[in-house]
Amino acid sequence: MKLPTFRKINKNDYPTDYKDLMERLAYTINLDVEVLYEALNGNITLADNQRVTVSQFSMQAKADGTPNGTAPQIKLKFNTAVIGTHVISLVDPRNVNRYPTSGPFCSGVQDGEFFKVNHITGLESGITYNITIILYQA
């Protein structure tokens, strides 16, 4: 459902006795309602409106899903505990027709303001993937 067109409060729509009051009220009400209207009209983003960190990195995994080399460390957007992870994109840039061998799942450990990736399931060994992950924070 699409919202109807937003119509701002205009002081000229009210009797002369109330124009000063409506002008002062209109500024605050119009600003707040316009922000809400824009958000409800499809402009809410995950990264800007939820307590999450969205991160992109490249990683090559061993056969068991652990990083081949240095484990990626993700700087967290919020100073709160990571309560879950969600791999939303997993792409082999050399072969976009290559798909994960199972549903990708990421595990790791939080160390202060960083999250260290310890394991991602579904990766073929020896292939460097471009990965996008969401870290949900408390």
- The CATH topology of the largest domain turns out to be Immunoglobulin-like
Q: Which structural class matches the secondary elements?
A: alpha+beta
CATH architecture of the largest domain: Sandwich
> What percent of residues are in strands?
25-35%
How much helical structure, as a percent, in the residues? 10-25%
Ends distance: 31 Å
What's the pLDDT, averaged over the residues? 90
Secondary structure topology:
Blueprint: H1 19-43, H2 46-49, E1 52-60, E2 73-75, E3 82-91, E4 106-111, E5 114-120, E6 128-137
Antiparallel strand pairs: 1-6, 2-5, 3-6, 4-5
Q: Describe it for me?
A:
- By secondary structure, the protein is an alpha+beta fold.
- It has two domains: 33 residues, no CATH class; 91 residues, Immunoglobulin-like (Sandwich).
- The strands form two sheets. Strands 1-6-3 form a three-stranded antiparallel beta sheet. A three-stranded antiparallel beta sheet has the order 2-5-4, with no helix packed on it.
- A hairpin with a 2-residue loop joins strand 4 and strand 5.
- The radius of gyration is 23 Å and the shape is elongated.
- The mean pLDDT is 90.
What descriptive keywords fit this protein?
3-stranded antiparallel β-sheet; 21% helix; 138 residues; Immunoglobulin-like; 2 domains; alpha+beta
Can you summarize this structure?
The protein has 138 residues and is α+β, with helices and mostly antiparallel strands. It contains 2 helices and 6 strands; from the N terminus they run ααββββββ. It has helices at residues 19-43, 46-49; strands at 52-60, 73-75, 82-91, 106-111, 114-120, 128-137.
